[in-house]
């Protein structure tokens, strides 16, 4: 992806985020999130799932559960545009991120152990 495309994507993301925040504050023309094509506010969606997600991360990787939890939350916020609330289950999406991140963390640990 070229630098120009990255800058355009960032600009579009900022515009979409500003529109979403305006709607969240209750502007006159606001639509419910499900009816709009705007990206969802991942922080609002994650709030009720925090305890569940932390527990799942500890089940997946008992040694590095807290680190895994932080990585999953960061990735969920970073890639929130790839989550479609109409077609996907949030817990399933988060669990998949956690499993994949756990594999990445374990690979890094093994790599560092052999240095």
Distance between the termini: 33 Å
| Beta-strand residue percentage | under 5%
Number of strands: 0
Note the total helix count.
5
Overall structural domain count: 2
Which structural class should the secondary elements be placed in?
Answer: mainly alpha
Structural shape: flat
Radius of gyration: 17 Å
Describe the overall structure.
Helix content is 66%, strand content 0%. It is built from 5 helices and no strands. The chain has helices at residues 3-24, 42-46, 50-60, 65-78, 90-113. The chain starts with a helix and ends with a helix.
Task: List descriptors.
Rna Polymerase Sigma Factor, Chain: A; mainly alpha; 115 residues; flat
Condensed summary:
By secondary structure, the protein is mainly alpha-helical. It is built from five helices and no strands.
Q: How is this fold's topology laid out?
A:
Blueprint: H1 3-24, H2 42-46, H3 50-60, H4 65-78, H5 90-113
């Amino acid at each position: 992806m070229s630098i120009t495309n990255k800058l355009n994507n960032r600009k579009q993301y900022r515009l979409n985020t500003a529109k979403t925040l305006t709607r969240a504050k209750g502007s006159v023309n606001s639509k419910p999130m499900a009816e709009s094509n705007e990206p969802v506010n991942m922080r609002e969606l994650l709030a009720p799932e925090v305890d569940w997600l932390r527990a799942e991360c500890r089940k997946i990787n008992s040694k590095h559960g807290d680190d895994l939890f932080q990585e999953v939350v960061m990735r969920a916020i970073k890639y929130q545009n790839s989550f479609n609330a109409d077609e996907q289950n949030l817990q399933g999406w988060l669990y998949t991120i956690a499993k994949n991140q756990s594999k990445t963390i374990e690979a890094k640990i093994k790599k560092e152990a052999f240095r």
